[in-house]
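REQUEST FORM: STRUCTURE PREDICTION
Request ID: SP-0412
Submitted by: Lab K.M.
Chain count: 1
Length (residues): 162
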Amino acid sequence: MRTFLIALLIALSPNATAQGEVNSPELTIASPAFVALSVKDLDREIAWFNSMFGTTTQRVADIPGGRGRVALLSNGPLLVELISLNGSFTPLEKGNSSPRALVLGPVKVGIFVSNAADARAALESAGAELYGNLFEDPTFGVLAFQIKDPEGNIIQIFQPRD
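STATUS: Completed
RESULT:
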């Protein structure tokens, strides 16, 4: 059922398949990206993504059976799905104090931009919580940095190095 709902929302979204570079000169999404996060406070996360990444809310829908809500946001090649299920919890809420990387499942999500330094400055100016410094990773040929959303999800921003 969840897969059907996601496919339906994506199909209904007018900008879900838009290609090309979009955004402000400081934060340009460089390639198509899809991010799906389970969140507790859907409205707060929608506002945060709209503020930080210039997304617009395409759809917000109730999940059948009153199980929660889902939102679909987009900005050109960036598509963000936020899912808020009733009764969801973080590992820390259940007494697990392990670092996020020790919890099975996604550790972080990534978005490619045209210029990492400009994107970092734009996100910092917009109030993003920076998580570490800008760094070069020669193994993967990227310049990158990380931010956290209001619920602590790690989003890594990448710039491919030529």
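NOTES: The longest strand covers residues 56-63.
Reviewed by: T.R.
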